[in-house]
Amino acid sequence: MSVLMVNDWVDFSEMKGLLEITDGNLASHSNALEKVGYIEVKKEFVGKKPKTSYRVTQSGRQAFTDHLDALEKLLGR
Predict the structure, then answer these.
(1) For residue 41, what are the contacts with CB-CB under 8 A and spacing of at least 6?
(2) Is residue 44 pLDDT above 90, yes or no?
(3) Which of 9, 17, 18, 65 has CB atoms 3.0–4.6 Å from 53's, for a disulfide?
(4) CA-CA distance, 3 to 75, in Å (whole number)?
(5) E-assigned strands of the chain?
(6) 43 has which bridge partners?
(7) Does residue 29 contact residue 60 with C-beta atoms inside 8 Å?
(8) Using CA atoms, how far apart are residues 55 and 4, in angstroms rounded to an integer?
């Protein structure tokens, strides 16, 4: 989520590289985030190659901000 908070759209390959995770791991996490409405997934073809990209939704942005606020409270900040 932090990657998506500071970028408009991030494609699958870039996200996978930044997070250093497997294809399956990224797919399962992105599916879970999409189901709860925290991210939007765009699938398209660039030439003959499929391209999947992600961006945070307003709901996801709010949930992430709330999560950071809760962590700061736990740390006493």
Answers:
(1) 30, 34, 52, 53, 54
(2) yes
(3) 9
(4) 23
(5) 10-11, 39-46, 49-56
(6) 52
(7) no
(8) 6
Taking residues 48-55, what's their average pLDDT?
96
Which residue shows structure tokens 């961006």? 55
- What was the pLDDT predicted at 77? 73
This prediction's pTM: 0.87
Q: Structural domains in the chain?
A: 2-74 (1.10.10.10)
pLDDT, average across residues 43-61: 96
Cβ burial 17-50 (10 Å sphere, 16+ → b, else e): eeeeeeeeebeeebeebeeeebbeeeeeeeeeee
Average pLDDT estimate for 1-27? 96
Closest CA to 57 of 13, 11, 1: 1
Are the CB atoms for 41 and 52 separated by under 8 Å?
A: yes
